[in-house]
């Protein structure tokens, strides 16, 4: 049996409905000067918008009656695009940088790792500290615990502990976030 030929569904527009797309009989109208005109029939509002050389744009569709405004729709869309681009530009993605340590780290190596950590915090990134135990170092876990406590106290003014130290097999993981 043959299926009936159906027309594809109309493409859903993104953004507010404008002019003839507004299907309500009456709307709450705000004119191009920003003055509230009260409840008006949609066809009258569309004629007013055309006389002003602008568009009727549905601002708040979920109210009863819906709120529409007479404005230049092209200019409205352009400013909305500019705002979105500006918001994306100001947005910073927070990365998680990893610092790997061993329990028996030497003083100079520790200082190098701390300078790197300080740079990461200044850039606004989080730091994941991984302390790995090898062989018999597992018998002296208190050395690693002291090292992590020392790190916490050294970066106390720059960062806060987001995730406290916890064991994952032979390594301890701690996450610090900038203040």
Précis, in short:
Helices cover 32% and strands 30% of the residues.
Sequence-ordered SSE layout with sheet pairings:
Blueprint: E1 26-30, E2 36-41, H1 42-51, E3 55-60, E4 67-71, H2 73-90, E5 96-101, H3 107-122, E6 126-132, H4 141-154, E7 159-168, E8 171-178
Parallel strand pairs: 1-4, 5-6
Antiparallel strand pairs: 1-2, 3-4, 6-8, 7-8
**Assembly of the depicted chains:** single chain
Q: Count helical runs.
A: 4
Q: How big a fraction of the residues is strand?
A: 25-35%
Strand and helix order: EEHEEHEHEHEE
User: Sheet with the most strands?
Assistant: 4 strands, mixed
Question: Using DSSP, what is the number of strands?
Answer: 8
| Strand order in the largest sheet | 2-1-4-3
Low-confidence stretches: none
Can you put this structure into words, describing what you see?
The protein is of the alpha/beta class and 179 residues long. The chain is built from four helices and eight strands; from the N terminus they run ββαββαβαβαββ. Helix 3 links the parallel strand 5 (96-101) and strand 6. It starts with 25 loop residues before the first strand and ends with a strand.
List keywords for this structure.
8 strands; 30% strand; 179 residues; alpha/beta
């Amino acid at each position: 049996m043959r299926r009936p030929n159906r027309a594809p569904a109309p493409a859903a527009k993104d953004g507010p409905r404008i002019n003839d797309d507004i299907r309500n009989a009456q709307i709450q109208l705000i004119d191009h000067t920003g003055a509230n005109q009260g409840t008006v029939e949609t066809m009258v509002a569309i004629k007013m918008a055309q006389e002003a050389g602008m568009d009727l744009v549905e601002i708040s569709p979920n109210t009863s009656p819906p709120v529409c405004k007479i404005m230049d729709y092209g200019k409205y869309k352009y400013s909305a695009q500019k705002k979105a681009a500006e918001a994306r530009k100001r947005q910073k993605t927070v990365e998680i940088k990893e610092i790997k340590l061993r329990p028996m780290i030497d003083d100079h190596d520790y200082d190098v790792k701390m300078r790197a950590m300080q740079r990461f915090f200044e850039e606004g990134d989080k730091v994941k500290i991984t302390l790995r135990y090898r062989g018999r170092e597992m018998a002296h876990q208190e050395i690693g615990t002291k090292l992590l406590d020392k790190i916490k106290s050294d970066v106390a003014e720059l960062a806060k502990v987001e995730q406290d130290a916890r064991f994952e097999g032979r390594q301890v993981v701690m996450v610090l976030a900038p203040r």
